[in-house]
């Protein structure tokens, strides 16, 4: 259900993660966020890791078929007499863009955020779901003839059978030849 446009995207993400190790993402060059994508029944689910990010610092937008998730993790406030010994948690701006197919109903997208994981649920559009097609027994012309008014029906029958002789063949009876007089 997601459209992949770049076959080297995974390699690019890996290179970005290596380059971003120790470097915070900026608004002009945001860091990538890890994501899982899977289908659960009639819903497509995206789960993005954003540990330590406030709910108010997350923005989810959809423009046409482009889903964008942006978030910012700011450093924790520290007092004046604090000396940092180790800092491994990534800070800064994170962004992930995902191209959605037309088979997803982005209008009904739902977002939940709990325990540092943003879960987006996108229902599959009704037009994309498998459906059974009923097969009718009458052609359109036969249906029109069957529903026509009695006066119109008689006129149609007369018009359709002009020049055709009624020939009946019965089973188990020897075929008979019939001459047409003209």
Automatic annotation (TrEMBL):
Pfam families: HSP20
CDD domains: ACD_sHsps-like (cd06464)
Residue ranges of every copy of the SHSP domain listed in the record: 26-141
Regions of compositional bias (Basic and acidic residues) in chain numbering: 162-173
Domain of life per record: Bacteria
Stored InterPro entries: A-crystallin/Hsp20_dom (IPR002068), HSP20-like_chaperone (IPR008978), Small_HSP (IPR031107)
Region (Disordered), start-end ranges: 143-182
Family per similarity comment: Belongs to the small heat shock protein (HSP20) family.
Name of the featured protein: Hsp20/alpha crystallin family protein
